[in-house]
Amino acid sequence: MGRETVVALVGKPSSGKSTTLNSLTSAQAKVGAFPFTTIEPNKASGFLEVECACSRFGKSESCKPNYGYCRGGKRGVPIMLLDVAGLVPNAHLGRGLGNKFLSDLTEADCLIHIVDVSGTTDAEGKATRGYDPLNDIEWLQDEIFHWILGNLMEKWGSVVRRHTSTKSSTLETLRQQLGGYNANKELIARALDLVNPLPPLQEWDNAKIEEVVRAFMDVKFPTVLSLNKMDHPDSDKNVSKIILKHPKLRCVLTSSITEVFLRKLASQNYIKYDLGTEFIDTIDDLGPESGLKPLDDKIRNRIENIRDLVLYRFGSTGLVQLLQEAANLLDLVPVYPVRNINTFTGGSGEYVFRDCVLIKKGTPVISVARKIMGEVTIASIEGVGGTRVGEEDTVDVGKNDILSFKIVPGGGAH
């Protein structure tokens, strides 16, 4: 099995990281068992919402996933979240849990950086007013940069000597130096492609080494910013400032505390809440026949405030969109392996699209088969309508994303 995609949540204390993690991992309904065999203490299973294949074929009624959930054609696909602790300034010097925080990051395929845009917490997460959250964005990037650069520079002299004496390629030498960050050859090659011009490694000066490290960070740690506490009065001006200073960064406005509250009310049957939207309904809206519980004035007023200050103003709490943005950054596509390509069912029973895996767009279908089934001998691969799919054909949104793999008898996984 290929390794799972890992999205790391990072942020200083009191930025809303734990609240964000809680909202992304609570699916507001009983969900199937988790697909990840062992979930370590700082890992959790989040749910990426995608348009389920069942809605394409009018089969939402009979869609019952093995993992995650499907509600009215909206599928919650499990995705691994890593809760990275110990984030304080000068982590790269070992301050706080610095070294642990940075080595935990190596597992991540992308980062969600939760930034308190209200400016009510300082760099250490202590209460204040008027703090500039721009500092947090730049400081996180600097921490990672100085950590990687420091590790590289520590032995740069011997790296260059070995590089010239063994006549290695730049890619091979950097693979040896950067492979420890869970980076394969392809990823390092993508980073080197961003550096222009790229002189021979033995001619690199400090500025060129720093440029290479920045390029490596771009491909190894692509980042989505969660601009959290968006409904605070001071947030607007801070959001504008961040977007002006960093126009290329992917930003999502969020209110994680609102999302947690709405999901809690929904689980207690006070409201019907359509995740990722502005739509919440109460017994006042739908009447007693809805089966919803009656509201007291305190809850009713809080819901009205949430509608006015968050939902109607921003269109949603932003939490569903946050994971979707991370998936877009990683080019992930939901792929549905089925036993029966005509009915879309599994081995037995009438339920459709029982399984869904997240695969990088452009991956050959034979690699999808390996990820799902291990080292088996594939006799043939079928797509929708029973059409033959070539092993080197690639997956994309709505293309080769429903597949049935036929195994050679006796060619099972080793």
Automatic annotation (TrEMBL):
GO terms for cellular component: cytoplasm. Residues 5-274 form the OBG-type G domain. It comes from the Eukaryota. One of its GO terms (molecular function) is GTP binding. Keywords: GTP-binding, Hydrolase, Nucleotide-binding. SUPFAM superfamilies: P-loop containing nucleoside triphosphate hydrolases. Transmembrane segments: none annotated. It comes from Hyphopichia burtonii NRRL Y-1933. This is p-loop containing nucleoside triphosphate hydrolase protein.
